[in-house]
């Protein structure tokens, strides 16, 4: 026994004395923020009055009697989220139209006056019970804007808002996140006033006292808005974070709805004063609410996988939205796609090849901070360098050559985000070859690259705010994924199908059936001069694998269309190229369709460049048979178009027309209207 004790003491002595951990590099996350970081991936549910009015942003004048789901099942929502690997669900308790999914004592505009469950239902309570059953966290989305309430814009409304927050945050158990939307003020019903109301977004809501109320009622909840205070918006609705994403933010310079926020603050700042990490929100369909015409526009597996790697893989959390349908269910196609993503993520990270590798570091802080700590799943174990040692190399040597295509690294963020620059190299017969040169790491960074066979990797931290820390390193080989074809059609109607970088065959159909290897094979560009739905699939003849199916609606080509304007650049609005646009000098676009058509609607695509200008948000669409006498066919708004600049589809009853005109009644920035593309709908479906 004495010999064993002596041996233990000798081993302990050889390891060296205990070393103090690195000093924090401020700002650092709070305990509630650290708990939020652990969630990483959770679901959004947009289900409200808009589901039944077929809108994105309701005006507030909707009748509660219209809210009547036929088979609402929050257990189905929770089951889908759990099977998808999500850790929680955030529900739109009240959207901009003011309709409440719980029987609020402070308004009649709620489920208590709907036919659903004879006015005795409480959707928030049902979701609470479903989340508890499936082991999920629950969060609350609450829109500060209310287009229904007569007092919006006055101090009385703030009392109303806080009374409702008290209901939501005291009656439904533990809430992990309170989500405040940045959309505030504009046209609305406002108790029958039907007018424009704008507020000072910085001061109107008295955010310090509103935040204090949330802290009092739900001390463990993080609060989300453009600038936090706990979690910030990633600055887009594509679900993508940035190549350089800091969790640090100049928080006191930001407020909800700030116009310059996406360009100046969304990526965070190296010298940010507060820890306000990014949350990437995105819908599984083009819109946030359910629209039947988007049933074939659910995001494909490759699209969802790109979102995963560009959000969670870039130091952000991922919030994927389900637009629950009018039955009150997550649609079957949405379920199918999100479960495909779950399966693929599990496949991509099934085996961590680093676990059987030999790791060495150019510098180690001492006992308890060795490089081997990065192989532990314990978040409290981490590698750290000595104070002042910024440049560090970590060598990963495999027992034999491995085929790899993924690399993952995580900082020990409890002590702050530090890394400013890194490289990843692979050992080849000719020496070290650079795979990636990057900047930030943060909570998690995942690199994707082409398959490479090697027996060693070198990960080098080239720059940092202080001596770096790493809590985890992983190396993987993800199975290849065959992507669906990419379709382009030019103005003449010529269709091109392509799968970049792949030696595959493409098959397609035009009759609505799903394509397979017995369908027509794509041989080269072909003409489609009628409105039709095309479906196409990629096929790898070497493996027999089929991709997901591309489904795209094409209308009549624009070969003979003419924009009636003296500016030749106006033709960019009908050139079938989404990357070009025309900014008008008269806030309207008039087109000669060259023939009389029966129209059932129109489409508008805003500019797709990063710094969009002149995006139309209120419109009038007119038609004419002779180009002189015009009739209004649709008036309205393109809700949320600035944050979600997708193609807008507006439908109406069939009308004969040769000329069309889209007039901008308002733009998101007050500049002259811009048009990337305008189209018509000639199929009544």
UniProtKB/TrEMBL annotation:
Gene Ontology annotations of biological process type: fucose metabolic process; glycoside catabolic process
Gene Ontology MF annotations: alpha-L-fucosidase activity
E.C. designation(s): 3.2.1.51
Keyword line: Glycosidase, Hydrolase, Signal
Recorded GO CC terms: lysosome
Domain spans labelled F5/8 type C: 538-683
First-tier enzyme category under EC: hydrolase
Family the UniProt entry places it in: Belongs to the glycosyl hydrolase 29 family.
Protein's recorded name: alpha-L-fucosidase
Organism encoding this protein: Cecembia calidifontis
Phylogenetic classification of the source organism: Bacteria, Pseudomonadati, Bacteroidota, Cytophagia, Cytophagales
């Amino acid at each position: 026994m004495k010999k064993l004790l002596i041996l233990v003491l000798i081993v302990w002595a050889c390891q060296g004395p205990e070393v103090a951990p690195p000093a924090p590099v401020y700002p650092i996350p709070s305990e509630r923020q650290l708990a939020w970081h652990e969630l990483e991936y959770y679901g959004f549910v947009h289900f409200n009055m808009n589901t039944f009015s077929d809108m994105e942003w309701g005006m507030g004048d909707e009748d509660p009697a219209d809210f009547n789901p036929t088979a609402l099942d929050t257990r189905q929502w929770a089951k889908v989220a759990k099977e998808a690997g999500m850790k929680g669900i955030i529900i739109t308790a009240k959207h901009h139209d003011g309709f409440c999914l719980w029987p609020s004592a402070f308004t009649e505009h709620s489920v208590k006056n709907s036919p659903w469950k004879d006015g005795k239902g409480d959707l928030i309570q049902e979701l609470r019970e479903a989340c508890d059953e499936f082991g999920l966290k629950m969060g609350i989305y609450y829109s500060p804007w209310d287009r229904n309430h007569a007092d919006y814009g006055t101090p009385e409304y703030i009392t109303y808002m806080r009374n409702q927050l008290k209901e939501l945050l005291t009656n439904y158990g533990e809430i992990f996140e309170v989500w405040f939307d940045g959309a505030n003020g504009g046209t609305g019903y406002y108790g029958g006033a039907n007018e424009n109301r704008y507020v000072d977004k910085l001061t109107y809501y008295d955010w310090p006292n509103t935040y204090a109320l949330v802290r009092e009622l739900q001390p463990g909840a993080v609060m989300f808005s453009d600038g936090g205070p706990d979690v910030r918006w990633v600055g887009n609705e594509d679900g993508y974070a940035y190549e350089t994403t800091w969790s640090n933010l100049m928080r006191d310079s930001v407020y909800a709805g700030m116009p310059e926020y996406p360009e100046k603050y969304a990526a965070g700042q190296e010298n940010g004063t507060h820890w306000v990490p990014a949350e990437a929100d995105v819908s599984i369909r083009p819109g946030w609410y359910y629209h039947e015409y988007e049933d074939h526009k659910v995001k494909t597996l490759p699209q969802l996988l790109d979102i995963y790697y560009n959000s969670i893989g870039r130091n952000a959390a991922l919030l994927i939205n389900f637009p629950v349908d009018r039955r009150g269910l997550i649609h079957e196609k949405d379920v199918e796609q999100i479960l495909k993503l779950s399966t693929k993520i599990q496949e991509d990270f099934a085996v961590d090849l680093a676990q059987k590798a030999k790791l060495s570091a150019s510098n180690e802080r001492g006992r308890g901070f060795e490089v081997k700590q990065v192989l532990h799943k314990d978040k409290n174990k981490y590698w750290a360098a000595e104070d002042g040692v910024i440049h560090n190399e970590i060598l990963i040597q495999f027992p034999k050559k491995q085929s790899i295509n993924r690399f993952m690294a995580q900082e020990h963020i409890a002590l702050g985000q530090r890394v400013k620059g890194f490289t990843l190299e692979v050992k080849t017969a000719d020496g070290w070859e650079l795979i990636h040169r990057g900047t930030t790491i943060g909570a998690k960074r995942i690199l994707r690259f082409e398959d490479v066979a090697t027996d060693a990797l070198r990960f080098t931290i080239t720059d940092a705010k202080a001596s770096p820390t790493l809590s985890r390193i992983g190396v993987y080989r993800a199975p290849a994924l065959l992507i669906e074809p990419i379709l382009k059609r030019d103005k003449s109607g010529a269709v091109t199908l392509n799968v970049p970088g792949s030696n595959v065959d493409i098959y397609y159909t035009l009759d609505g059936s799903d394509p397979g290897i017995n369908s027509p094979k794509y041989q080269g560009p072909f003409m489609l001069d009628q409105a039709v739905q095309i479906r196409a699939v990629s096929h790898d003849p070497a493996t027999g694998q089929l991709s997901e199916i591309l489904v795209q609606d094409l209308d009549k080509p624009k070969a003979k269309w003419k924009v009636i304007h003296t500016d030749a650049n106006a033709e960019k609005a009908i050139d079938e190229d989404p990357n070009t646009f025309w900014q008008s000098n008269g806030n309207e676009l008039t087109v000669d369709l060259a023939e009389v058509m029966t129209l059932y609607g129109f489409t508008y695509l805003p500019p797709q460049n990063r710094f969009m200008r002149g995006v139309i948000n209120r419109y009038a669409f007119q038609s004419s048979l002779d180009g002189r006498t015009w009739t209004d066919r649709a008036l309205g708004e393109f809700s949320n178009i600035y944050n979600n600049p997708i193609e807008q589809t507006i439908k109406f009853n069939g009308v004969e027309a040769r000329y069309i005109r889209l007039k901008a009644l308002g733009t998101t920035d007050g500049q002259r209207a811009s048009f990337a593309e305008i189209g018509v709908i000639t199929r009544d479906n």
